Amino acid sequence: MHLEYERFVLLGHSDGGFVAQAYALAHPELLRGLILYDTSPTTGIEWQKDVASNLEWFQKEPWFREATEALAQETRATTDAEITAIFKREMPLYFAEWTRRAKEFEPHRASVRLTLAPSKTASDSTAPDQVGVAPVFEVRDRLRSISTPTLVIVGKRDFVTSEKFGRMLQKGIPGSRLLLLEHSGHMGHLEEPAAFSSGIHDFLNALPR
Asked: Which segments of the chain does DSSP mark as H helices, in order?
């Protein structure tokens, strides 16, 4: 499909952020702007240890055991139905305040659908699939080459791509902005939709015409 846009703004969330970084490095002439949302420039050992450490934020939550058990079962899924069921069990980990706001977020859990295909077919090092077991994505030494105006968005309580790695992106990409969502995990567009949309709106308005 061809959208007939000569240049566009690319947003990548989580794993999509790896794709967006790779695209910005390969095709900067096609981008007006880049939004890297809850992602990281690396999935190496430092990142893997950070994920494991951040899980401790939630160890006193009533759903913690079930969620972490589900997280460990991701690689065993063989169908879309299985990976969807697993993610629904681990989903509270991706929110800063699931217990307090569970009634608000439950409809999203009920409607979520995952597909296994992208993670099972990716074979290169630019598309990690499962936490801690995928090929390593690593562009930290190339961030300074990204010339596209960039907004980095990260949730303060994002266990999987934490503030540490959001700030790493912002410091590494010349002239980039950081939007820290103080009351969000990995799903700031659901947790703080007003701050999320306002930050993107301001960024877009500031882009050169």
From this structure: 15-26, 45-54, 64-72, 80-90, 98-111, 117-121, 163-172, 188-191, 193-206
pLDDT, one tens digit per residue, over 162-184 is: 999 999 999 999 999 999 999 99
Instruction: Give CA–CA dist 47/208, Å, rounded.
Output: 34
Cα gap 96→117, rounded to integer Å = 28
- Give the gyration radius of the chain's Cα atoms: 17
Instruction: Tell me which DSSP letter residue 62 carries.
Output: T
* The token pair that represents 77 in the structure block: 């899924």
End-to-end alpha-carbon separation of the chain, Å? Answer: 25
Burial of 93 (0-12, 13-18, 19+ CB in 10 A): buried
pLDDT tens string 130-167: 443 457 999 999 999 999 999 999 999 999 999 999 99
Q: For residue 188, is pLDDT > 70?
A: yes
Predicted structure pTM score:
0.90
